Amino acid sequence: MGIKWDEFFITGDPLILGAQISIALTMIGIVFGLTYLKKWNWLWTEWITTVDHKRIGIMYIISAVLMFFRGGVDGLLMKAQTSRPEMEFLSSQHYNEIFTTHGVIMILFMAMPFLIGLMNVVVPLQIGARDVAFPQLNALSFWLFFSGAMLFNISFVIGGSPDAGWTSYFPLAGKEFSPSIANNYYAIALQIAGIGTLMTGINFIVTILKMRTKGMTLMRMPMFTWTTLITSVIIIAAFPIFTVALALMTFDRLFGTHFFTVSGGGMDMLWANLFWLWGHPEVYIVALPAFGIFSEVIATFSRKSLFGYKSMVYAIVGIALLSMLVWVHHFYTMGSGPAVNSFFSITTMLIAVPTGIKMFNWLFTMRKGRIKMTTAMLWSLAFVPCFTIGGVTGVMLAMGAADYQYHNTLFLVAHFHYVLIPGVVFAVFAGLYYWWPKMFGHLLNEKLGKWHFWLFVIGFNVTFMPMFFLGLSGAARRTYTFSAESGFAPLFLLSAMGSIVLAAGFAVFCYNIYWSLRYADRNISSDPWDARTLEWATATPVQHYNFAKLPEVKSLDAFWFMKKNNEGLTLKDSEIEEIHMPSNSGQPFIMCVLFGISGFFLVFEWSIAAAVAALGIFAGLIYRSFDYNDGYHIPVDEVRETELSWRNKKGEAHKHVS
Amino acid sequence: MKSTRFVVLIIALIPMIFLTGCETNMVVFEPQGPVARTITDLINWSLAWMLLVVVVVFSLFGYIVWKYRERPDNMDYEPPEEHGSTVLEIIWTAIPILIVIALTIPTVQALYDLEEVPEGYEDKEPITIHVTAADWKWIFSYPEQGIETVNYANIPEDTPIHFKLTSASTMQSFWIPALGGQKYAMAKMETEMYLVADNPGSYVGKNSNFNGRGYAGMEFEVLAQTHEDFNQWITDVKETAPELTEEEYEELLKPTHLGRLTYANTHLEWVDHANMHSKTYTNPELYRYHGYQGKTFEEEDNYRNKETNLEHNGHHSDEDDEHEGHGGEHDGH
C-alpha cells in the first residue's frame, strides 16, 4: 500500500490550519505539564486503570464537556456562515463537514457520554451497590467510547471529515459520491464507540436487576434508576441494528459490496430504514435518563415524592415500546404509501400520551410543594415550557401529510433542538449541579450557575425559535447559504445572535467549574440538598467503596424516610466488615489503543495493517479470559478510619458509634 | 421568584413577535393550489389543538411555580405526603388520547387524498412530467409534448400535473412549497405526486434533501401559465430548441450547476432512470475533492462500460467552478 502523504493532512484552509496548530500545542502542553508535575504515574494508577464507577463516570463527563465544546464550535461556525445571505466564511464542503460532525458529536459523543457518565456515578449509589456488575467491562466501555470519539475527532485534520450528514444517507455516503476516506471515519469510529455503548447497556441491566440492596424492590427504585434500566433495554434492542448497518456500510465502502449503492442492485433506502430503526430509539436512549434526572431534581427541590410514580414507570415502558415502532416518520416522503404513513403517524402521535403523563406528573409533584429555586431546579423548570414547545411541534411533524411541508426544513431542525436541548442538555446541567458534590465534595457556585442558566436558556430560545418560522417560509436544512431575495436574512441573523448568547452561557459554565474547583467551600454536609434517595446516604465525595454498610430500603425515597425516622444512619463499629472490591486494570486502556490503531488503519483502507492490529485485540480478549484476578479486600481498620473522617461532624445526619 | 415568571413571559412572547412580524413570509400558510391547501388546512387544525395544549401546560406551570415557590414566610411549611391521584392521571391520559384521535382522522384522510388527483380536478386531463434529479440540477421531461427542460418547468394553470420522480444520482427531495408537499426522488425507483396551480404565477421549487457540495444551488422555477401561454411555449420550444443527444446528456449528468436549458426531445428515448435495470450514470472520479482518496469500484452496469466513453475517466474541470465560487467578490447585501 502506497501511502499518499500529500493527502494525509488536510491543508489549504486557514481555520483547519489553526486547529492543527492548536491541537499540536495542546498535546505538547499536556505532555509537558504531566511530566513537569510528575503526574504520569498518578494519571495511570488513579484514572486510566481505574474500574471505579464514579471515576469512570467523571471521565465520561469530562469527555462529554470537551465534546460539547467541539460540537458547540461547529454550531457557532454554522451560525456564523448563515448569519448573512451569500456569506463566504465557509465553503460548502467545509459547511457540510461541520454540520455532519456537529450532529454526530452532539448526539453520540456529547449527549450519550454525559448521561452515561451520570448513570455511572449515580445508579450504583441509588441502588445501594458498591460498583456495577462488571467493573472492568465498564472501564472497557468507557475506553471504547473514548477511542471512537478520538478517532472521529482527528478526521478533520487527518484524512478528511465525514461530510454526508449525521444520518450519513446513502447513496451519498457511498464511494460513488464520496470517494475520499472521510466517511470511513463515520463507519468505523461509530462502530467502536457503539460496541462500548452496547456493553454499557448490558452492564447496567445486570447491575440494576442483580445488585440492588436489601429491600430495594423494582417499584422502590428511584426514577433515574428506572429510566437507566429502560434505556439499557433500548440500547440492547437498538444498537445491534446500528452495528449491522455500519458493518454493511463498511463493506460497501471498503470492499465494494452493493448493500446501499445505486449500482449493482443496492437499495439506498435500506440504509435509511436501518439507520432510523436505531436512530429513533437512540433519541429515547438520551431522553429517558434525562427524564429520570428531572424526576429526581423536581422531587428533591419540591420536598415531595414524585407524583404518580407508578404511572411514570408505565409511561417510560410505553415510550420504550413505542420507540421501536416509529422509525418511518423520518421519511414519510419516501413514498411508501398512505397506509404505511398512517400507521407510523398514529404510533408517533401516541408517544405524546406517555410523555404528557410525565409532564403532568412533574407539574403535580411541584403542586403543594415548597419549590426551592436552586440552579438544578431552574434547569428542570425551564425544561417544562421549552420541552412543551418541542413536544407539540413533534406532534405536528408526526402528522404524515403535514410533514410533507415540514420535512427537511429548519422547522424540523428547530423541533429536534427544542426536544434535545431542554430534554437532554438542560437535564445534564441539572444533574451536574445536583450531583456535583457527590463527585467532588463541593457545590458548583450557585450565582455563576444562575448566570449560566439565564444566558443559556435565553440564548437557546433566540437561536432556535426563529428556525421554526424559517422552516415555514421554505428554508431547507443543511444549505450552506441563501440568497438575499429569499427574505430569510433577518431571522437567520437573529438566530446567529442567539447562538452567541448561548455560547456565553456555556462559557460561564466552564468558568463555574474552574471557579468552584478552586474556591468553593469544601466543608459541606453529605446531604446538602436535603435529598431523598440513597446516593446521599453516604459520604460526599463518595468513598471508593460507596457504603461501609449496605443500606436497607423500606420504601420509596428511602433516604428521606431514613432521615425522618432516624433509621439506618448510624454505623456501629461492630457492623464494619472487610469490603471486597475489584482491582484496577490497564487492559481496557490497552484495548482502546488497539481498537484505535486498528480502526485508524481500516479508515485508511490499509486492510492488512488493520488485520495485524486486530490480532492485538484478539490477544487481549484471550488474555482477559485467563485473568483470574478476584479483586482485593479493604481491611476493617481502613473502612473505620474513612468513616470516622466524615461521620459525626457538625450538621451531619450520619453518625458513627463504637 | 420573579425570574421564573419572566421566563414564561419571554417564551410566550417570542412566538407572538414572530407571528406578527413574519406572517407574510411563510409560504406554507399561503397555498397556491388545492394540494398545498389540503396540507395547510391540516396544519391549521393541528395548530389550534397544539395552542390549546401550550396554553394549558404553560398556565398550569406558571400557576404552580408561582404559588408554591419557596418564600421567606413559608420556610416552615412541610409539603404533604402524596403519591398520585388515579382520577387526575386518568384525565391526563384520556385527554391526550382524544387529541391524538382528533388529529389522526384528518391526517389519514389527507394522506389518502394526497395520493390522488385533487378533488374537483378528476375530469381534467392531467399532464405528465418526468422529473429526473441529478447532481446538482433538475431535469423535467414532458413525454406527451416531447420536450425537456433543465432547472425550470412551465405548467398550465388549473390542471393536475402528474409528476413522476426519479434520480440519476443521489437522493433528492422534490419540493414546491407553494403548491404542495415534498417527495423523494431516488435512483432506479419512481415516486409520484399530483400538484395543481390555481393561478398563473412563478413558484420556487427546490431540493430539500442534502446531496453534497452543490446542494444549496438546487433551486428551480415552476411557472404556472394560462393554457394559451403554455401551448404557445410548447410550440416555441418545438420550433426553436435544439435536440438533446446522448453525449450531451451524459455531460449534463456530471456534477455541475447549470442554468436553464431547453430541448425539443427527451432523454426518456434512451434511458429512464426509474427503471431498476437501467444503467448507472455515476462516476466517482468526478466527486473527488480534498482529503485522503480511497479506492473506488468499477461497476458492470455503469454507463462508462462502453468503449466510446472511456475518455471521461480522469479530469474534472466541472466541479471546480463551485470551488472557486468562494473566493469571489460577493457582498451580502
Model description:
- Chain B: Residues 305-333 are annotated as: Disordered.
- Chain B: Belongs to the cytochrome c oxidase subunit 2 family.
- Chain B: This is Quinol oxidase subunit 2.
- Chain B: It catalyses: 2 a quinol + O2 = 2 a quinone + 2 H2O.
- The complex is a heterodimer of chains A (658) and B (333).
- Chain A has a domain at 52-302: Up-down Bundle (Cytochrome C Oxidase, Chain A).
- Helix content of chain A is 66%, strand content 2%.
- Chain A contains 21 helices and four strands.
- Chain A has helices at 5-8, 14-36, 40-48, 53-81, 92-126, 135-153, 182-210, 223-255, 268-302, 309-323, 338-350, 352-366, 375-398, 400-406, 410-440, 446-472, 489-519, 558-565, 587-603, 607-625, 636-646, and strands at residues 570-572, 579-581, 632-634, 655-657.
- A two-stranded parallel ribbon of chain A has the order 1-4. A two-stranded antiparallel sheet of chain A has the order 2-3.
- In chain A, helix 6 runs parallel beside helix 19 (587-603).
- The model of chain A has no long low-confidence stretch (mean pLDDT 93).
- Chain B is an alpha+beta fold.
- Chain B has two domains: 2-70 and 85-113, Helix Hairpins (Orthogonal Bundle); 127-278, Sandwich (Immunoglobulin-like).
- Helix content of chain B is 32%, strand content 18%.
- Chain B is built from six helices and eleven strands.
- In chain B, helix 2 (34-67) packs antiparallel against helix 3 (86-113).
- Chain B starts with a helix and ends in a 9-residue tail after the last helix.
- Chains A and B meet through helix 5, helix 9, helix 10, helix 11 and helix 12 of A and helix 1, helix 2, helix 3 and strand 9 of B.
Tag the structure with descriptive keywords:
heterodimer, A: mainly alpha, Cytochrome C Oxidase, Chain A, two-stranded parallel sheet, 66% helix, B: 333 residues, alpha+beta, Helix Hairpins, 2 domains, six-stranded mixed sheet, five-stranded mixed sheet, 11 strands, disordered C terminus
